[in-house]
């Protein structure tokens, strides 16, 4: 039966002019639509976003998904597709994937990620494979990959990192100390300055005698 220009009773077994469908035909889902203070029944082939189809001997119904941020669900407590910006993981929706899982952006799902072990202790401070002879060097620590990711496209966290460190021994035992060479250069420079000063002083004395 149709009431007015809008076929509000399409697919109904029984229908009300004011409330729409009351019972639906076989295989269709009864959906109670709310608009402001008004509600009316519809018979649909598939349930709208945020609802899932529940089949019963009495009548098939559209039931609301009870999972937060779910767009479509398989059952009351299992989401099959999350709303935009949320990742699906074991029937739930998350802004970010839980620890141990990585985000698969193309499907907006959380899959098993790369699992790494604990960091080792910081290694010996060295530079150019030497542990002395320099003031500063680098020390490194590492960690092992415990479990590889489910997909090769998912990167693992860094497994090695280095930082600047101060060497415990700046001068190597028995090594040559270079600073004396620098001191020798300073002495030579000082000697040259003294000779130049004496020469200028001699010129000044000679000039002074001539003027007298």
In short:
It holds the Pfam family TSP1_spondin. With 212 residues, the protein is α+β, with helices and mostly antiparallel strands.
Furnish the topology, listing elements before pairings.
Layout: E1 12-16, E2 20-24, E3 29-35, E4 38-44, E5 51-54, E6 61-64, E7 70-75, E8 78-82, E9 87-89, E10 92-94, E11 101-104, E12 109-112, E13 115-116, E14 136-142, E15 145-147, E16 160-166, H1 179-211
Antiparallel strand pairs: 1-2, 3-4, 5-6, 7-8, 9-10, 11-12, 13-15, 14-16
Give an account of the 3D structure.
The protein is α+β, with helices and mostly antiparallel strands and 212 residues long. It has three domains: 53 residues, Hormone Receptor, Insulin-like Growth Factor Receptor 1, Chain A domain 2; 44 residues, Ribbon (Hormone Receptor, Insulin-like Growth Factor Receptor 1, Chain A domain 2), CATH 2.10.220.10; 82 residues, Thrombospondin type-1 (TSP1) repeat (TSP-1 type 1 repeat, Single Sheet). Helix content is 16%, strand content 36%. The chain is built from one helix and 16 strands. The longest helix has 33 residues. The protein is rod-shaped. The N terminus and C terminus are likely disordered. InterPro entries: Furin_repeat, Growth_fac_rcpt_cys_sf, R-spondin, Rspo_Fu-CRD_dom, TSP1_rpt, TSP1_rpt_sf, TSP1_spondin_dom.
